[in-house]
């Protein structure tokens, strides 16, 4: 009973989750924002988020928010940071656990975008957002850059089959830099974690570019050896 009494003398606070959702449109890295539906800051741009319920873990709350707002399951999700400044939310004392998620932009339906007043924004042109959400987005972008250097999580942003130019476009968008085409292809192919298909993408050129898929089994073996992806 002494422990329960000790709990009661402390102030209560709310726990929330905020999700930085990244997508890739073939050219630009994008973040998904929604129009906030409650006060304070009603109608302003916000990350997708919600409060943690009594009967769920923080991680379960993040997955719930993503599924309700995007209709998608089995999304790549990683905890980013805990934001707990005392006055970060004018509505009350709220500690937010931020996560970043990666989805194939084509899997997110227009119907749900409209239903939740959501919109994709170029990561380099994020509009004013509520609270400390801009800080969350910038931190998530940096974490994504560090992560994709050693892990092929970037494939979560691509269709199941893709070309080497599409893959290079993705990494150039993430790093906001230009890579040498020949060196990039040589490096990626030397890792032997891509499966080359007989099919070609021919909408951009007559010669076309071969499609590839990601070989998860080969990557797992290389990851144990300390794979440097990019």
Descriptive report:
This protein has helices spanning 2-8, 58-70, 110-115, 133-148, 164-175, 181-190, 216-223; strands at 14-24, 29-35, 45-46, 48-51, 76-83, 94-102, 118-122, 162-163, 194-201, 209-214. With 230 residues, it is α+β, with helices and mostly antiparallel strands. The protein folds into two domains: 2-148, Nucleoside Triphosphate Pyrophosphohydrolase (Alpha-Beta Complex), CATH 3.90.79.10; 153-223, Orthogonal Bundle (Arc Repressor Mutant, subunit A), CATH 1.10.10. The strands form two sheets. Strands 1, 2, 3, 4, 5, 6 and 7 form a seven-stranded mixed beta sheet that branches. It has a three-stranded antiparallel beta sheet with strand order 8-10-9. The longest helix has 16 residues, at 133-148.
């Amino acid at each position: 009973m002494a422990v329960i009494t000790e709990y009661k003398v402390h102030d209560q606070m709310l726990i929330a989750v905020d999700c930085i959702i990244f997508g890739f449109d073939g050219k630009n890295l994008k973040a998904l924002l929604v129009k906030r539906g409650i006060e304070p800051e009603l109608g302003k741009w916000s990350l997708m988020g919600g409060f943690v319920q009594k009967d769920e873990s923080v991680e379960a709350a993040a997955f719930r928010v993503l599924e309700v707002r995007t209709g998608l399951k089995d999304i790549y999700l990683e905890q980013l940071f805990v934001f707990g400044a005392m006055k970060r939310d004018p509505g009350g004392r709220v500690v937010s656990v931020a996560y970043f998620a990666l989805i194939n932009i084509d899997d997110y339906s227009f119907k749900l975008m409209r239903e939740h007043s959501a919109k994709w924004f170029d990561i380099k042109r994020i509009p004013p957002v509520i609270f400390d959400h801009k800080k969350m987005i910038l931190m998530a972008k940096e974490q994504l850059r560090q992560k994709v250097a050693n892990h092929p999580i970037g494939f979560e942003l691509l269709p199941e089959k893709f070309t080497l130019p599409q893959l290079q476009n993705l990494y150039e968008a993430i790093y906001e830099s230009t890579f040498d085409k020949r060196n990039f292809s040589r490096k990626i192919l030397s890792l032997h974690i891509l499966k080359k298909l007989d099919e070609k993408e021919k909408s951009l050129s007559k010669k076309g570019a071969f499609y590839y898929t990601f070989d998860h089994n080969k990557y797992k073996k290389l990851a144990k050896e300390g794979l440097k992806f990019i």
